[in-house]
C-alpha cells in the first residue's frame, strides 16, 4: 500500500522532471519500468500523460467507470489531460489528514457540500474558481466558496408492497408511525437525513427545517428505536430491504431503482418529502494538477455529463438546464425531474458543515 | 572505545538498529496519539474531562467492556473444550480438527460476519427452516442486536482461544495425571486439582489474547449490531473520519492502551506473566 503510493508519487515527480527537461527519456522509462506503473501509456509513446492528469478521489465501485465515461472522456477530449481515480473514499478526516501531511495526491474529491463548509475555512480546500466553474449550472445556494454541487443524491424511503400494498405509506409521518404501519425500519447511521426525516414526521415544514431542532428530532428517532435498524453504507441499506429485514427502509434515493429491480417490484420507492443532498466536488489544498481541477468540475456541470451520471450512477443532475432533459423512464428516480421536484426538500450544507460533528455524535449516543 | 566496551555489552550494537526501528515506527506514533489527546482541540485535559461529563462515552466504554468480557468467557470456555478434545483424541482426528480450526482462522472477518447474516438473519437459513417446519411463527432476532454481535465475535475468537491452550495442554506431562489417579483421585478431582491448575498459564494467555483483541472489534459490531451496538473502535473511527474530533479519538485510544497495560500489571501481581508468554516458571 505504502509502496504503491510511493511509486505513484515518484513516477509523477519524474514525469514532471522529464517534461521540464530535467530528466532524460531513458531514466524516465527505466523508472516507469521499475515501478510497473503507467507502462501502457509509456508504450503508447504518450509519456507526458502521466504528468498531465487529474486524480479524482471517489468511492470506488461503479463510480470509477461512470465518472470516467460521463466526465473523464469529455474532459480528456477538451483538455488533452487524463483522469485517474483514487477509490479510497474522501471522508472528511482523510481529506484533512492528506492536506495536513503535505502530501496531496488528489485533485477533485467527490464529497458532500457540507464538507466544503467545514474544511474550507480551516485551510484544507482550494476555493472554487468561478471564472471557470459556473454558478448558474447548479441550484441556487449550492455554489459555495470552497465547493460546488455537481450532482444531487437524496434520502427517500422504500416500502414493502406485500405489507402495505392496499394502503401505501406516503410521507415520513407514515414512516415513523409504527402503530399504523407495523414492522421494522432502517435509517442512516450517521444522522444525516435521519434527523430531517424525523422532524418532518413530527410536523416541521420542509422549508423550515434549519436550524435543526436536535432535541425534537432525537426524541422522534428514539420513539421508534426498538423497531429500527441503522445502516452505514449503501449496500447495507440495500441488503436490509432485499433480505426483507425491514418493511420500510430509508435509502439513498439513487439506490431506489436497484432495490425495486432486485425485489421484483416488491419494494417501492416513495419520493414524497425526499431530502435532496448536494453532492459536491471539492479540491484539496495544494492539489497536484492545479487549475485543471476546475476545468474538470466545469466539465461535470455540463448537461451531457449530468445526464450521463444519472444514467450510469443514478445521481440526479443539479444543473437546472438538465432538469427538463431527464428521460421519461428516469423521471421517477431523479429527484429534480418534473415529476418529483415540487415534492422534495433541500438540505442546508451550511448548517451541517457547522454543526454536523456534534449532530452525528448526539445521534449515535441516542441510538446506541 | 575500550571503556565503552567495558560498560556496554557488544550485543547491544547488533540489536541497536532494531531497537531504533521499533522506537521510531512504533513508539513515536503512540506518543503522537498521547500528545494529540492532550493538545487537540486545545491544550489540557479537556478530552479526559469529557469522560466525567458525558454519559454517552461512559456507556460506549461499558458496552465495549461488557461485550468483551462475555465474548472472552464463551470463547475461552469453548476453546478449552476444543483444545482438550484435540489433545485427547487420535492423531488423525486431531489433524482434521486443527485443519478446520485453521481454515476458519484464515477466512476474512468480513466473510465470516456476513455468513452469519445469511445463516441467522431474519430470512436466513435457520429462521427459514424453523418457520417451514412450523416450530416458530415469527423469525427469531438472532442478528442486528447484541446477541448477533456476541455470536459473531465468539465465533471469530475461538481459534485465538484454542491455540495457546493447545500449546499449554500438549506440554503437560501426562504421567502427572496418571499419578493422581494412582493415588486414588477420581477423574473429576484430577481435572480440577491437577489438570486445570497446570493449564492455568495457557488459560490466562488465551483469556488475555481474546479480551485484548475483542476490545478492537469494529466490523462485526457495525454489521451484526444493526447500528445499535456501538463499541469504542467504531466510535474512534467516526471521530477520526466524520466528526473530526481527533482529540476525543486519541483520548479513547490512549484509554484503551492504558486499560490493557493496567490489566497486564494487575495480572503480574498474581502470577509470573513470563509463563503466560511461554517462558519458564522461574
TrEMBL record, chain A:
List, alphabetically, the GO terms of the cellular component aspect: outer membrane-bounded periplasmic space
Principal localisation: periplasm
| Localisation per UniProt entry | Periplasm
Q: Does the keyword Ligase apply?
A: no
Q: Which Pfam families match?
A: SBP_bac_8
A GO molecular function assigned to this protein is: thiamine binding
Q: What is this protein called?
A: Putative spermidine/putrescine transport system substrate-binding protein
Organism, per UniProt? Sulfitobacter brevis
Automatic annotation (TrEMBL), chain B:
Q: Does the keyword RNA-binding apply?
A: no
Top-rank taxon of the source lineage equals Bacteria
Q: Which GO terms describe its cellular component?
A: plasma membrane
Q: Which GO biological-process labels does this protein carry?
A: transmembrane transport
Q: Name one Pfam family in it.
A: BPD_transp_1
Q: What is its main location?
A: membrane
Q: How does it sit in the membrane?
A: Multi-pass membrane protein
Query: What region holds the ABC transmembrane type-1 domain?
Result: 61-267
Coiled-coil features, chain-numbered ranges:
none
Instruction: Keywords in alphabetical order, please.
Output: Cell membrane, Membrane, Transmembrane, Transmembrane helix, Transport
Q: Where are the transmembrane segments?
A: 12-36, 56-84, 96-119, 147-167, 244-266
Its localization reads:
Cell membrane
Q: What is the similarity comment for this entry?
A: Belongs to the binding-protein-dependent transport system permease family. CysTW subfamily.
Name the chain's protein: Putative spermidine/putrescine transport system permease protein
- Which species is this UniProt entry from? Sulfitobacter brevis
Amino acid at each position: 500500500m505504502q509502496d504503491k503510493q510511493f511509486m505513484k508519487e515518484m513516477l509523477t515527480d519524474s514525469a514532471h522532471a522529464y517534461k521540464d527537461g530535467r530528466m532524460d527519456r531513458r531514466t524516465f522509462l527505466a523508472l516507469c519500468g521499475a515501478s510497473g506503473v503507467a507502462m501502457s501509456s509509456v508504450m503508447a509513446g504518450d509519456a507526458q500523460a502521466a504528468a498531465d492528469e487529474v486524480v479524482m478521489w471517489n468511492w470506488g465501485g461503479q463510480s470509477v467507470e461512470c465518472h470516467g465515461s460521463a466526465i473523464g472522456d469529455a474532459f480528456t477530449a477538451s483538455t488533452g489531460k487524463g483522469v485517474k481515480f483514487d477509490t479510497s473514499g474522501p471522508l472528511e478526516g482523510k481529506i484533512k489528514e492528506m492536506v495536513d501531511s503535505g502530501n496531496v495526491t488528489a485533485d477533485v474529491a467527490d464529497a458532500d457540500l457540507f464538507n466544503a463548509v467545514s474544511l474550507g475555512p480551516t485551510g484544507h480546500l482550494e476555493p472554487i474558481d468561478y471564472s471557470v466553474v459556473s454558478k448558474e449550472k447548479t441550484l441556487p445556494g449550492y455554489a459555495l466558496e470552497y465547493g460546488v454541487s455537481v450532482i444531487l443524491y437524496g434520502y427517500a424511503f422504500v416500502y414493502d408492497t406485500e405489507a402495505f400494498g392496499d394502503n401505501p405509506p406516503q410521507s415520513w409521518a407514515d414512516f415513523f408511525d409504527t402503530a399504523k404501519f407495523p414492522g421494522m425500519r432502517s435509517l442512516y447511521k450517521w444522522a444525516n437525513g435521519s434527523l430531517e426525516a424525523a422532524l418532518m414526521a413530527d410536523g416541521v415544514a420542509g422549508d423550515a427545517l434549519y436550524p435543526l431542532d436536535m432535541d425534537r428530532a432525537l426524541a422522534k428517532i428514539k420513539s421508534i428505536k426498538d423497531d429500527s435498524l441503522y445502516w452505514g453504507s449503501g449496500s447495507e441499506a440495500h441488503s436490509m430491504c432485499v433480505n426483507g429485514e425491514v418493511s420500510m427502509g430509508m435509502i439513498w434515493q439513487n439506490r431506489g431503482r436497484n432495490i425495486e429491480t432486485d425485489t421484483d417490484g416488491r419494494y417501492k420507492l416513495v419520493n414524497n418529502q425526499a431530502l435532496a443532498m448536494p453532492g459536491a466536488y471539492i479540491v484539496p489544498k495544494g492539489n497536484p494538477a492545479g487549475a485543471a481541477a476546475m476545468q474538470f468540475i466545469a466539465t461535470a456541470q455540463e448537461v451531457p455529463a449530468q445526464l450521463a451520471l444519472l444514467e450510469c450512477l443514478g445521481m440526479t443532475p443539479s444543473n437546472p438546464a438538465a432538469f427538463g432533459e431527464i428521460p421519461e423512464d428516469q423521471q421517477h428516480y431523479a429527484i429534480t425531474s418534473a415529476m418529483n421536484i415540487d415534492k422534495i426538500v433541500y438540505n442546508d450544507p451550511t448548517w451541517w458543515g457547522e454543526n454536523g460533528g456534534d449532530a452525528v455524535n448526539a445521534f449515535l449516543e441516542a441510538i446506541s | 572505545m575500550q571503556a565503552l566496551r567495558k560498560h556496554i555489552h557488544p550485543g547491544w550494537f547488533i540489536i541497536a538498529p532494531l531497537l531504533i526501528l521499533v522506537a521510531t515506527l512504533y513508539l513515536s506514533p503512540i506518543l503522537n496519539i498521547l500528545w494529540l489527546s492532550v493538545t487537540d482541540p486545545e491544550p489540557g485535559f479537556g478530552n479526559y474531562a469529557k469522560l466525567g461529563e458525558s454519559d454517552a462515552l461512559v456507556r460506549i466504554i461499558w458496552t465495549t467492556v461488557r461485550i468483551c468480557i462475555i465474548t472472552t468467557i464463551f470463547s475461552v470456555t469453548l476453546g478449552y473444550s476444543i483444545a482438550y478434545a484435540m489433545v485427547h483424541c487420535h492423531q488423525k482426528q486431531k489433524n482434521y480438527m486443527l485443519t478446520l480450526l485453521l481454515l476458519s482462522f484464515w477466512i476474512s472477518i468480513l466473510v465470516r460476519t456476513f455468513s452469519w447474516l445469511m445463516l441467522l438473519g431474519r430470512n436466513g437459513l435457520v429462521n427459514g427452516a424453523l418457520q417451514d417446519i412450523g416450530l416458530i411463527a415469527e423469525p427469531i432476532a438472532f442478528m442486528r442486536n447484541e446477541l448477533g454481535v456476541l455470536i459473531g465475535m465468539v465465533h471469530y475468537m475461538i481459534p485465538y482461544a484454542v491455540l495457546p491452550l493447545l500449546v499449554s495442554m500438549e506440554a503437560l506431562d501426562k504421567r502427572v495425571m496418571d499419578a493422581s489417579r494412582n493415588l486414588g483421585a477420581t477423574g473429576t478431582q484430577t481435572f480440577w486439582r491437577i489438570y486445570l491448575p497446570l493449564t492455568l498459564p495457557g488459560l490466562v494467555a488465551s483469556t488475555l489474547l481474546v479480551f485484548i483483541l475483542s476490545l478492537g472489534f469494529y466490523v462485526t459490531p457495525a454489521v451484526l449490531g444493526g447500528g445499535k451496538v456501538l463499541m469504542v473502535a467504531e466510535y474512534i473511527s467516526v471521530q477520526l473520519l466524520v466528526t473530526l474530533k481527533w482529540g476525543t479519538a486519541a483520548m479513547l485510544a490512549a484509554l484503551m492502551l492504558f486499560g490493557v497495560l493496567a490489566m497486564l500489571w494487575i495480572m503480574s501481581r498474581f502470577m509470573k506473566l513470563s509463563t503466560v508468554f511461554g517462558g519458564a516458571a522461574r
